[in-house]
Amino acid sequence: TYKLSTSSTVNSCNPYLLSMAGKQELGNQAHALFDRFVASQTCKEVQQNFAELCHHLQLDSQDYHHFYNKLKEKLNYWKAKELWQKIDKRASHPDYEQGKPCAKTKCLVLGAGPCGLRTAVELALLGAQVVVLEKRTSFSRNNVLHLWPYTIRDLRNLGAKKFYGRFCSGSLDHISIRQLQLILLKLVLLLGVEVHTGVNFKGLLEPQASGSTGWRALVHPESHPAASYQFDVFISAGGGRFVPDGFKIKELRGKLAIGITANFTNRRTAAETQVAEISGVARIYNQKFFQQLHTEMGIDLENIVYYKDDTHYFVMTAKKNSLLKKGVIKQDSSDAEQLLAQANVDQEALLQYAYDAAQFSTSHKLPDLEFALNHVGKPDVAMFDFTCMHRAEYASLVRERRGKKLLIGLVGDCLVEPFWPLGTGIARGFLAAFDTAWMVRNWGKGVTHLQVLAERESVYQLLSQTTPENTSKNYPAYSIDPSTRYPNVNLSSIKPKQVRRKRRSTETDSLRRMVDLLSWCQKHTAWCERVQVKDLSQSWRSGLALCALIQHFRPKLIDMSSLDENDAVHNNQLAFDILQREFGIEPIMSAGDMASSKEIDQLSVVLYLTQVHNVFTEPVSAVPATDLGSSELCYFCHQQLYVLERGSAEGKFFHRSCFICQQCGTTLRQGGYTFYPDTGRFYCEEHSEPVEEKGEEGELQQADLSTGVQVWTISELIPLCINVPILFNMLH
Q: What family is it from (predicted)?
């Protein structure tokens, strides 16, 4: 008789069923690995789980052209499919042309911050090979970012909610930097982007004379595989302190403003959930609250913000006198760097100050407040000065060596440093990422490099003025095409011929000015046998060279014979104090740092010595006006000019309304004009080539603003500031 076997016997003997069972088991393991990858909460976990997933699915993560499609094919998982749908919808946008525009473009992105990673997403969708370098090995920044409506929609459409379930739930409009980095890191990895952490970028290596190599990066460790990667596009998202050679930076300087950030552990208890956030309270709008805080706690603030995310995050602007009275700052100083130097700050007093402010502002409703820890395991509290902010004069350039061109673009803080009370960092950072991707798209499509640069600079003119109110409200239509985001944008406001002139004059003029400055310093310190000025960096370490300059021009202010060459701190401090007291020149760094730093930043020394040169060679005192009631005459109309209403460019002060093109009368903006020193006239970009004002060899001369300080005016600041105290605090 025939007897049915048990199911286990049938399965063990049936090859088809064995194969199906094996595939199901492998599929389940892939699903588990994908879930682990999505849920990863550290940079290291993301990379490890992604590597395991690729290994399990037998995928080559360096096969950037086909990686994403192969991943979709092999990972048949409903949770993943929801994410694929969002990515596919984005990738199907006509701007990307199915990845064809940049199929032969190789990009290196420096920095795995939010802006660098967001740029990498767009470059990958355009079909480019993208490699990201990040010197850190972990994402540890707890500080919380304010998001504009379009950024929330943008991230949701990219699947942010799949990676971080609490993303902008309900009315929330913020996210911690760490969580945003994790979301974008996971996304770029799925798109086939290579991300290398723990790699220090040291500079660009030019193509070899033999033509065997293209542009490469000098990295540490030198043996890292990224050292051999050749690229034709370099995007710097390395933060405000790193700007590639060739770019000029403008400084926007205001009155001293001290910010404090503090992060506390969020246990997500019911009691913590009930505490209301503070989206922004300023003294002018709630004087009673700030007066009570001052009276009861001795804490004097201009404003305070409280957000809940991974941590309880507080950020506030504190008054200096309050910090001195509470013992947070040990000794007063007119130098902001010295004032907030680590040695001059009592960390325990700072922690108490931040703790008391957080408790009072939440009516003591946050139970058992404990500081969250930063990347070095210490309480995550920081005090910083945002008196000065920096902005690149232009956003892109092209370098060519041995027949090989390199397109360089800036995004993030190295393009425009954000003003944190306005929450502009990520909003403008993402706009710049889209603008940069559009530039690379044109580059990949073969548009001439001058046209690529001209269009990018035309768009960049708008970035610093963008607000939620003046950008397009049609968020679903946003793409990398600038016309979808900036109403009435003129992509040809800057012409290719203007780009050529600017770049050429910038490089040659900058070099000439540095040579002239060095010669001037050598000439006027030659009288002192103890001083030998050989460069614009290390020669100034001892402080004697700076003191010699001062004695040469103002012998009554200093006595070189009394100075000890080995006491560099004293010498530098003496020179810094004299130049600040007598001429209003702020020190570039503390005297201690100047004496002990392994490498002295040449750019900082050049900027500082340029100011010294100006005060000793110009007949008019360079001491900046600080009295809000003082006045002078407008450069253009020669009428009375008060500090509160003045603008500044090329060392000229004027009514903002008088800053117009001398030919067509168009109102000029900072960075959007041409100045001719011979005639003292200003022109708009369109009328920047009057024949009668040509210099040597017919080359139009472009004035350099890199050493200038732009003075903010009321009309420029009112659209930017959230309250009047911040407005007046920012004024020079």
A: Belongs to the Mical family.
**How far is it, in rounded angstroms, from Cα 197 to Cα 202?**
14
Strand partners, 303: 282, 317
CB-based contact 72:58 (threshold 8 Å): no
**Tokens in use for 414?**
């190295």
pTM of the prediction?
Answer: 0.67
CA–CA gap between residue 725 and residue 423 (Å, rounded): 17
The total of other beta-carbon atoms located within 10 Å of residue 66's CB is: 12
Q: Is 12 helix (H, G, I), strand (E, B) or coil?
A: helix
User: Hey, how many other C-beta atoms are within 10 angstroms of the C-beta on 227?
Assistant: 15
Token code pair at residue 690:
């009057």
394-450 pLDDT tens trace: 899 999 888 899 999 999 988 988 766 566 788 999 999 999 999 999 999 999 999
pLDDT, tens digit (0-9, with 9 covering 90-100), for 258-284: 999 999 999 999 999 999 888 776 666
Q: Which of 388, 318, 419 is nearest to 721 (CA)?
A: 419
Contact of 394 with 445, CB cutoff 8 Å: no
- Spatial separation of the C-alpha atoms in residues 318 and 260, rounded to whole Å: 7
Q: Is the peptide bond before 482 cis (omega within 30 degrees of 0)?
A: no
| Helix (H/G/I), strand (E/B), else coil: 366 | coil
Q: Where are the alpha helices (DSSP H) in 298-448?
A: 320-325, 336-339, 347-361, 425-444
DSSP letter assigned to residue 380 = -
CB 234 within 8 A of CB 166: no
Label residue 219 exposed, middle or buried (CB < 10 Å: 0-12, 13-18, 19+). Answer: buried
**Residue 51 Rama label (left phi>0; alpha psi -120 to 50; beta):** alpha
- Take residue 360 and report the two structure tokens written for it: 């009072």
